[in-house]
Amino acid sequence: MTKSSRITLSVLATAILASMATLAVVHARHTPDDAPPTPALKVKDSQGTVVGSYRIPSDSQIAALPDGKEILYGKRLLNETARLLPTHVGDGLNCNSCHLAEGKLGAAGPYINAYNTYPTFKSRAGRKVSLTERINGCFQRSMNGVPLAPDSREMLAMKAYMKWLAQGVPTGDKVDVVNAGKIDTSLVPDPVRGKQIYGEQCASCHGDSGEGMKDQFGDYIFPPLWGNDSYNIGAGMARTYKAAAFIKYNMPLAAGRNKPLGQGGVLTDQDAVDVAQYFTHQPRPDFPGKINDWKNQKKPKDARY
Amino acid sequence: MQKLKVVLLASLALLAIVFLVAISTPYWFARKHDAVVDIHNPALIKKGAYLAYAADCAACHTAPHGRPFAGGLAMQTPMGTIYSTNITPDKKTGIGNYSYGDFERAVRRGVRPDGAALYPAMPYVSYAVVRDQDVKALYAYFMSSIKPVEQRNKPTTMPWPLSMRWPMALWQLMYARPRAFVPNKAQSPEVQRGAYLVEGLEHCGACHTPRGIAFQEKALHDTSSGVYLSGSALEGWYAKDLRNEGLGLAGWSDHEIVDFLATGRTDRTAAFGSMAEVISHSTQHLSDADLQAIAHYLKQLPARDGQSPHPILGVDTTTAKLRAGDYRASGATEYVEHCSECHRLDGRGAPRVFPALAGNSIVSAEDPSSLIQVTLAGGGMAKTPHDRMAFVMPGFKQLKNRDIADILNFIRNGWGNRGSQVKARDVARMRQLIDHEPLNYVPEAHND
Fold first, then answer.
1. FRET label pair with B407: which of A167, B26, B349, B420, CA 20 to 30 Å apart?
2. Cα separation, B208 vs B239, whole angstroms
3. Residue from A55, A215, A219 to probe the interface with B (highest B Cβ count within 10 Å)
4. Chain B nearest CA to A86, separation (Å)
């Protein structure tokens, strides 16, 4: 190689290195390249003192557990209740039609504190209610069906899922997560306005006549909000303000960037109260057991009977 | 020593010649062709307004929350960020002083009135085939119906020497030569119209045709290689294959293509990312006849050699397994936990609400960029008057790279889909890209 070609080569090499360095500088900015750990939630005792922390567990941990099969079965029953328990579900709903994200989502009736909270006093029943009774309450009201035997494989499996989800939080202590978001119950509902909001914000999925939307197998993708396949008037969701609190924080799904379902953040309190008044008061099955509700307790103002 | 001097002098002389050739191109390679245009002709303006939709000008020249056509949208390139420019007829900061010749040369040749070459982020390579009467209509529309906005253009963030524009003129000499639309006379007038829109104003190839080493589109119209519109990756998105073949449009009916372009979704799928923008700003405004023409044109693009002319979808064993509670496949448990609430156990989602994953070509595309990006960063549907709501997928950045890779491999190979493996490091890389996305620059405008 001649001297001049060596020089040319080294000039070229320097130029290439210099431009690579420029590119490297441009690309040098660095941020963490994996997700942070699941955030810890506080665990509080009955006095409100922080006594520990809790992280929502991932389902990928279930399979390896000694009772993994039972937990997984419980999770499936909660996800696909209508399909898997047709003799117990009288409408088209699943437990997780309302308890969104497998009961792991705050303000959407999470199961996170279920196992460590029950038995607990419920004013509708006027006495202490066990977790089994609470679950069967859903079967009779929200799923307009018949209760499971307390020692049935299905009931035990659903409770096993809730026990796993509680991650050993002791009875009486609570993970700092809300069951329902706040809603202004002093607002006067306007069902006419509610009907309009329903058409704009709900009907794309739940149908113009509240009929829901079914998949290829005839199972509901989106639950029917009124009619024979919907929950009966004994369900909490039949009450205007309870429904409004759910709707405001959770509906519509895929409405924005809220994690994990793009849920909520669209309606004001008034919007939610109006739309809840509209659809909860559409025709829906009666609940024969209603005669026993609030017998010795003050009825909430949105009670249906 | 003598030799070194000669080499250095020769190099300098060569560089000087190349430089002179580059800066002189506006005088011989891309000369200005002026013409008289009646910019107040209502019919011409109306036509220009329609063509401006077809050319998707707003997608880049209107920044999110910015004034119409005042520019300021950031575009990421490997060398730095480019910002779109103000194309309102403001005399100080926009194109208010452009003659028709200036306008035509910028649109079809990529040359500014001062002679500087535009970056090919402006799709002048495609616009080159737009007919004279259409460019005149666009000029009339921009000069007389767009409100002038005083808003200075933001310089690129490219470091010197990459920021020098004169080498772009050499690129144009190579890859942006003047050309006219060549209709295939064997085709129906409708398909010819589709070709004209796709190759020119709609500049579909800018994203959907693979690019070569110099960033040039490998084909600007359909050729025997079949590379035109065969899918390409850009800015961390994969723009899908649009040819009538396996993972292209073989599984799409003409009606579905029209529905997709008019509304941003079909019963099975939905546009997201940049395509949702294209639908919002451009295709939803096109006439049904033009959308049909585009669909017919795309559907006649033959499959490449070695590609199946039929949709690729194997037998679905996934649905039955998931419905039976068999979550043993890698990623199945995580899919059911995080995705199935919307996309469902049968991978079919919900019509016009949640896109299907089964048989969705972007899910099993050879290049998984779009799939990874939409999973991490989320995506939104185009809002059009056809559907009451435009749904959004939230991002799943909270999930670990490993879990996302497992989920994506599960859906890329579930329900009869067939896709290559996504690695955790591919997800990590996309996370970096998303974290460093330039902010859309929307400067304050000075007048109303």
1. A167
2. 5
3. A215
4. 15
The strand pairing partners of B238, in sequence order, are B233
The rounded distance, in Å, linking the Cα atoms of B240 and B260 is: 14
Query: Do B428 and A34 lie within an 8 Å CB cutoff?
Result: yes
pTM for the model stands at 0.92
Q: What is the pLDDT of residues A185-206, one digit of tens each?
A: 999 999 999 999 999 999 999 9
**Homologous superfamily of A180-289 in CATH?**
Cytochrome c-like domain (1.10.760.10)
Per-residue confidence band for B54, with pLDDT thresholds at 50, 70 and 90? very high
Domain count, chain B: 2
C-beta separation of B260 from B267 below 8 A: no
Most A CBs within 10 Å, among B374, B402, B432, to test the A interface? B432
Is B3–A2 a contact, with Cβ atoms under 8 angstroms apart? yes
Q: How far is B81 from chain A (nearest CA, A)?
A: 11
Q: Which residue has the tokens 């665990």?
A: A43
Pure H helices in A220-268: 240-250
Distance in angstroms (rounded) separating the CA atoms of residues B175 and B170: 9
Side chain identity at residue B368, one-letter code: P
The CATH-assigned architecture of domain A38-176 is: Orthogonal Bundle (1.10)
What 3-state DSSP class applies to B126? helix
| Distance (Å) from the alpha carbon of A107 to chain B's nearest alpha carbon | 17
